[in-house]
């Protein structure tokens, strides 16, 4: 059966269909555009006439949770649930205040341990860049740093003349315009930040042989810089969300079959 999986981030929402451990039919929309009509339209595109027998949502934007829950209950023939630390995750959570862990990070830990085992470092590049640490003992915690969208927003907000950028198409040895200079600063400086964090993490005995997995919309910026030392897994978060649904509501879907 097909499960709708939804990752609600600060900037955008990514949705897809989870079926037998695979993710398909990806669609996106801006988080701020959440309305009943927009959500139902997105679900129609994702489902493509498939019968959805459940939905699992990982949200880091609580203010939109209500409209998502209400809309999904109209179009999903089964449980509509949100990722929480109290659910079965397939990995132990060794964190002092687990309720403060972002739902997307829990999904990354669940999906990562299932796909790659431990030890594991998941680097998720969104509005912020998060590094989640999974050792053989379980989910231990992580590191949060500004992502590229935040860097660009901050430069535009705190300076009088720098523009607000969203893309990184620049090439060249140095910038010959303000935009190109900012783009090159991000393209070359951001991978250095990531490499520095990973180097420090991998000094820890429990992480010396850790697999590094890159996910998230801006992961392509650091992909080449990290080379073969990292695996790019663009569907990891949605896979983890679907896996959490299976772990907690799998019997419902067996009955649906």
Structural commentary:
The protein has helices at 36-47, 65-75, 103-116, 148-158, 178-201, 220-226, 236-256, and strands spanning 2-8, 12-19, 22-30, 52-59, 80-82, 120-125, 128-135, 138-146, 211-215, 230-232. By secondary structure, the protein is an alpha/beta fold. The protein folds into 2 domains: 2-82, Nucleotidyltransferase, domain 5 (2-Layer Sandwich); 100-237, Nucleotidyltransferase, domain 5. The strands form 2 sheets. A 5-stranded mixed beta sheet has the order 3-2-1-4-5. Helix 3 (103-116) packs across helix 7 (236-256). It is globular and about 55 Å long. The mean pLDDT is 86.
User: Which residue ranges are poorly predicted, with pLDDT under 50 across at least 5 consecutive positions?
Assistant: none
User: Overall 3D geometry?
Assistant: globular
Largest sheet: 5 strands, mixed
**What is the CATH homologous superfamily assignment of the largest domain?**
ATPase, nucleotide binding domain
Give the N-terminus to C-terminus distance in angstroms.
7 Å
What is the CATH architecture descriptor of the largest domain? Answer: 2-Layer Sandwich
Helix share, percent: 25-40%
Series of secondary-structure elements, N-terminal to C-terminal: EEEHEHEHEEEHHEHEH
Number of domain modules:
2
Whole-number mean pLDDT: 86
Tally of extended strands? 10
Enumerate the strands of the largest sheet in spatial order, edge to edge or round the barrel.
3-2-1-4-5
Q: How are the SSEs placed, and which strands pair?
A:
Layout (H helix, E strand, L loop, with lengths): L1 E7 L3 E8 L2 E9 L5 H12 L4 E8 L5 H11 L4 E3 L20 H14 L3 E6 L2 E8 L2 E9 L1 H11 L19 H24 L9 E5 L4 H7 L3 E3 L3 H21 L1
Parallel strand pairs: 1-4, 4-5, 6-9, 9-10
Antiparallel strand pairs: 1-2, 2-3, 6-7, 7-8
């Amino acid at each position: 059966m097909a499960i709708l999986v939804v990752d609600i981030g600060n900037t955008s929402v990514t949705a897809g269909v989870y079926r037998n451990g695979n993710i398909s039919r990806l669609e996106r929309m801006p988080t701020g555009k959440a309305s009943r009509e927009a959500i139902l339209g997105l679900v129609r595109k994702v489902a493509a006439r498939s019968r959805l027998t459940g939905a699992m949502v990982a949200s880091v934007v609580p203010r939109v949770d209500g409209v998502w829950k209400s809309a999904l209950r109209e179009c999903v023939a089964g449980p509509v649930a949100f990722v929480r630390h109290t659910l079965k995750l397939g990995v132990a959570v060794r964190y002092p205040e687990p309720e403060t862990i972002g739902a997307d990070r829990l999904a990354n830990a669940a999906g990562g341990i299932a796909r790659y085992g431990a030890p594991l470092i998941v680097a998720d590049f969104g509005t912020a860049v998060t590094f989640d640490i999974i050792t053989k003992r379980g989910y231990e915690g992580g590191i949060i740093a500004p992502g590229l969208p935040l860097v660009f927003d901050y430069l535009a907000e705190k300076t009088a003349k720098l523009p607000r950028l969203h893309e990184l198409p620049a090439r060249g040895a140095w910038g010959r315009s303000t935009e190109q200079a900012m783009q090159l600063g991000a393209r070359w400086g951001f991978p250095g930040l990531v490499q520095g964090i990973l180097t420090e993490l991998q000094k820890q005995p429990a992480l010396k042989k850790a697999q590094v997995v890159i996910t998230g919309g801006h992961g392509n910026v650091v992909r080449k810089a990290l080379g073969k030392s990292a695996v790019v897994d663009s569907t990891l978060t949605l896979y983890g969300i679907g896996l959490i649904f299976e772990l907690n509501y799998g019997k419902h879907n067996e009955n649906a079959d």
